[in-house]
Structures are given as structure tokens and as C-alpha cells.
Amino acid sequence: MRRPIFPTLPLVLAVLALALAGCSKPKTVLTTQQKNEVDKSILAALPEDPGLVRLDADFGGKIKLLGYTLSGGNLMPGKTSTLTWYWQSTAALDGDYKIFVHLDGARRLTLDHYAVAGLLPVSAWKPGQIIQDSQLIEVPASYPPGGARLWVGLFDAAAWKQQHKDVRLPVKDPGKTTKDAKERLLVAKLWVGEKNEKKANAWKTPTPPTMDGKLDEALWAKALTEVGDFVDERNGKAVPGAQTTKAGFLWDERYLYLGVQVQDNDVRTPYTERDSTLWTNGKRGRMDVVELFLSVDPEVAGSYIELQVSPAGAIFDAIFTGHRVPEWKEAAANLTLSLEKAVFVDGSLNDPKEDRGYSLEVAIPLDQLPGITEIPAKGAIFRANLFRLSNGPEIPSCWNPAGGDYHNLLAGGLLTLAE
């Protein structure tokens, strides 16, 4: 299980007190207890924590955001989560800079603060120091559920207060993520609110399925009812009948089998080579592809794989040791699964004539999955999520919405090997 780094009780109380007060000013005179809290927040190295998401972003050549942890998975209306930032000073920074945090979902939550509950403002950071900065995020009970984006940056609080000027420290290098035109660093795509944890069985098959991509055997009929119809990836709602996608799993002693049926009136993909960017047309558009994210650990504390299959039968496979770590090109180079696969296009690929869709079958060797020490038996539980992307106006859909971050595998479903 991912274990966040929790602050001590005095620090939590201090954070809460400052949050209620608006964190308008940093502390200038510290008590002995507060000095101890500051000392604890200054680290020599990043902690060994599987829940740490690395960002390695640079603000103005002065401050780096090395990464963060977030407790509790999804943000829940009416509840509080702990967000811990790991900053590093690389050069002295003059001015009254304050950390701004925006949670942009159905509406914006502004969570600006001075580091370490106001006890250690940026102006007091010394080059080379790593700062562990925890804050509480309390989502109002009335906050609507749905996808949200978490942004962070630094602004000159004195310039804003005295002259009403919005002076922000520029994002010199966004590292492992992106920034926007307002010098905000995109930290994460999240889901706010309850989400029913979906569950499905992978049924054991006495004989391997015929790998022709058609999914017309009786053993697939039962499997395709398990995952069921995909939902709109953006809001969890049903998709139109002409755009439905179904999926199911089978297994035996050697393979985990994935079968997917896609309704699509214009099946297209330009890619034929392995590990091509199957999900995009090279610009801002998407291409037809099915994506599977899979971990043999239901808590996703270790490695996970990403597997994509296009309607042309092209494969993209990658192994990640942490959330989007390493970057995707290296992750793809580190994994080449010995797959068996087949795709059937009900229509004509890359042709303007109207199609009906496509279906695919993939046999994934169980002994090649990361974290496997012995062949799984009945009752083993994996964590999985599935996505279907499409060119044109079709709705992107999935098994379980992940707030826009497909690598947020904890937002997926539980897959049990059953007989």
C-alpha cells in the first residue's frame, strides 16, 4: 500500500490553524517547538516512498519542485487529505514569494500558503536544502464530483498586496509535467468525489481461445459481461449506443487474455510499427486505440504495465516503476512482451466508407508481468483499467474514470482470477 509521509500532530494543527486564518503572513518569531518543526522539515534527501510522484520542475532557476505525495487517493467532498510537497532551493530568492495552489474542477479551490505552515517562507530557504512542506486540502461537502487539475506555482505576495500586481516566478523547466501560460505547473489530474470501485472476474478457460480477433466463441460471451459497457472518461456517464465498447478477460496457466469489442463508424490508424505513438495523430488529435493499464499488486505499490493495441494490430507496451516513471520512451524501451494478438475490423481500415467497428484479442504471458514470482492461481487480484480512444468526434471512454490521468491506476478496477 502506498504510504504517505504524514506530518506530526503539532504541525497538522498548525497547518489547520493557519488554513483557517488564511495563512496571510509567515511567522517571524518562532517558539522552540516551531523551530523543531522547521528542523524536521529540512531534509538531506528525498524519502523512500512508493507514493512519491517525481516532478523535477524548475521555477526561475531558483526553486525546484522535486515531487509530492497525496494521501487518500481520490479527493472527497467533506473530507481532508494531506498533500506533501518536496521543494529544493537552488539559489537565494529575494521577495515575499508565496506558494499558490489551485484545484480546478467544477469550481476552483485556492490553497495558497507559506511553506511549513507559515514557519519557513521561501525567503528563508538556503540553497541545497530540501523542504518537506505539508498542507491539508479540505474539499467542501458541496463540491461537485468529477475530474480536476491540481496546479502550483509561486507569486510575489507583497507585489499583489501593495500594487495588485500578479508577479509569478516563471516555470523555467516543467520537468516531468507541463505548465500553462499563467506560469502554473500542472501537478496532477485527479478525481474528486465518490467512485464506485468496479470489479470484474477473469474466467479460467480450459482451452485457449482462437486468436482471430472476432470474439465469437461462447467463452467470450460470458467474459464480455464482466467489465461491461465503457463509460465516458470525462464524467463517468453512459456513451451513445453507436459508440459502445465492451471488454472481458480470460486466463489459463500461461496467459491473461484480453478481449475488446469497439463500435466505431470510421476505423483509422496510421501506425504499423511497435511502440509508435498509437494514441495520437501527431498533432492534438487522437487515433483509434485500446489501452490497458495493469498491475499484479492491487495497491499498485510497485511496477505496472501499459499495453496499447491499434486496429491495425500495432502494439505499444511499456513498464513503469512508479507513476509515469520513467518517461514513456524509456518505459517502452524497457519492455517487449511476447504477445499473441489478433484484430478484426468490421469494415475497412483507413477508408472513408462507413465501418461498424473492430474487435481484438491479446494473450499476455503471465510470467512476463512485473512483480510475478510464481504463476497466479485462482483468487489472485490484479488492478486494471481500460481506455478506448478514437479519431473524430467519438467520446473517449473507459472502464473507470481516472480524472484524466490514465496512469492513475488506483482509480481503476479490481480484476480477480476466477473459475
How would you characterize the overall build of this protein?
The protein is mostly beta strands. It folds into two domains: 9-192, Immunoglobulin-like; 199-418, Sandwich (Immunoglobulin-like), CATH 2.60.40.1190. It has helices spanning 9-21, 32-41, 157-163, 218-227, 328-333; strands spanning 42-43, 53-59, 63-70, 80-89, 97-104, 108-110, 130-138, 146-156, 171-173, 185-192, 199-204, 228-229, 231-232, 245-251, 255-263, 289-295, 304-309, 315-320, 340-346, 357-365, 381-389, 397-398, 413-418. Strand 21 (381-389) and strand 22 (397-398) form a beta hairpin.
Which structural traits does this protein have?
single chain; 419 residues; mainly beta; Immunoglobulin-like; 13-stranded mixed beta sheet; six-stranded antiparallel beta sheet; elongated; disordered N terminus
Annotation, overall tally of beta strands: 23
Low-confidence stretches: 1-23
**Share of β-strand residues:** 35-45%
Tally of individual helices: 5
The rough form would be described as elongated
Query: Taking Cα atoms only, what radius of gyration do you get, to the nearest Å?
Result: 24 Å
Q: How many domains?
A: 2
Q: Percent of residues in helical segments?
A: 10-25%
Element string (H = helix, E = strand): HHEEEEEEEEHEEEHEEEEEEEHEEEEE
Residue-averaged pLDDT: 89
CATH architecture of the largest domain: Sandwich
Question: What gap, in angstroms, lies between the N and C termini?
Answer: 27 Å
Largest sheet: 13 strands, mixed
What would the CATH topology of the largest domain be?
A: Immunoglobulin-like
CATH class of the largest domain: Mainly Beta
Structural class: mainly beta
